[in-house]
Specification:
Bound molecules: beta-D-mannopyranose
Mean pLDDT: 96
Number of helices: 2
Shape: globular
Strand content: 35-45%
Number of strands: 22
Structural class: mainly beta
Order of helices and strands: EEEEEEEEEEEEEEEEEEHEEEHE
Length: 333
């Protein structure tokens, strides 16, 4: 039976608002539960043209009602030395005493012009004319408090477009482990005919091993391209990983994988179909793009998973589901 995923009745639980830098959109948030509180790093923008994104910090006692903690963004493109850039889709984990944030980053922002036809027009770049390559790069920051950040590393060279970078919430066999989606790793030499989920390991978070393929797209709803969605959740059966796919009609859906606890390169379970798709008005219509649910955090509270997701690149939704319902629905090895 498909897992019963329940949307929170207050959805969307976070919407754009003051100050100016978050007044257009807030979406695709990283969330972490620490010391009895939920902390959310939203991806926010005050304008679509240019569509320049920053991360704001919010806090909640119950995981539903979030309040902005800082008037200023806590992370932004200036932190990377690219004042016209854009910081996107932060995923957060806490390992030992530090928070680690993996974010996607573009050195130059695009302007976003919604077209009403499914995909916005992102052809106009904003910023200096002598710019270099504008691929998505992914970056890791370290923070003691989610307010102050230290740049640790880019995980890819500028010529490889690589987003959906997600750290495991603990070291595996003594090493940090990172899921990623290098777009150009496709072809016989890579062992996959579609951009998929790959994994690298590191002792120090700065130098990463060559990516190893975890899995590519297999099902029709995945649309020939998948990416990790949320930091994996440790269960007694393995690592539970939510992932997204986007089909030929640009509809974003969610599926789940189970990875071996000691060897996360090994897929030991997969949902036979998607488990969530855009259904509600706020998931089908937004300021930027229609038909997008884009989870970026899953927090286990007792036997429930709190899934936080961006809705149409415009607002933030929360859905809950029993961990066991997801695991039971999977086809397992
Ligand atoms: C993906 C990413 C996400 C975004 C989604 C829908 O490729 O860029 O950040 O939410 O598209 O626009």
């Amino acid at each position: 039976m498909k897992p019963q995923i329940i949307r929170n009745k207050n959805n969307p639980i976070v919407t754009p608002g003051n100050p100016d830098w978050r007044k257009a959109v807030t979406f695709n948030p990283g969330v972490v539960f620490d010391n009895g509180k939920f902390y959310m790093l939203e991806r926010a923008a005050g304008n679509l043209r240019p569509f320049q994104c920053y991360c704001g910090l919010l806090e909640s006692d119950n995981g539903i009602d979030f309040l902005l903690k800082n008037d200023q963004p806590v992370l932004g493109p200036d932190d990377l030395g690219f004042p016209t850039g854009s910081v996107q889709d932060p995923r957060v984990v806490k390992i030992e005493n530090y928070f680690y944030v993996c974010a996607a980053f573009r050195p130059y922002s695009y302007s976003c012009s919604p077209t009403g036809t499914g995909l916005p027009d992102y052809t106009t770049m904003w910023g200096p004319k002598d710019r270099g390559i504008n691929n998505t790069r992914s970056v890791i920051f370290k923070s003691p408090d989610l307010i102050n950040y230290e740049f640790i590393a880019y995980t890819t060279p500028p010529e490889v477009d690589d987003r959906d970078n997600v750290l495991f919430p603990e070291k595996i066999n003594g090493k940090f482990a990172l899921l990623r989606r290098p777009m150009s790793f496709v072809g016989i030499e890579y062992g996959t005919d579609s951009p998929g989920i790959w994994i690298s390991y590191s002792d120090d978070l700065t130098s990463w091993s060559n990516p190893v393929l975890v899995t590519g797209a297999e099902q029709e709803w995945e649309g020939g391209k998948i990416g990790a969605s949320t930091p994996p959740v440790k269960t007694d059966q393995g690592w539970l990983l939510f992932y997204h796919g986007v089909d030929k009609n640009h509809i974003y859906r969610l599926g789940a994988l189970l990875l071996d606890i000691n060897n996360p390169e090994k897929v030991i379970g997969r949902t036979p179909d998607f488990i969530m798709e855009p259904e509600e008005y706020y998931e089908k219509f937004g300021l930027v793009i229609p038909n997008v649910i884009f989870p970026t955090a899953a927090i286990e509270v007792e036997d429930q998973l709190y899934i936080y997701y961006g809705c149409c690149d415009t607002s933030i939704g929360l859905a809950t589901v029993k961990t066991s319902d997801i695991l039971n629905y999977m086809d397992k090895e």
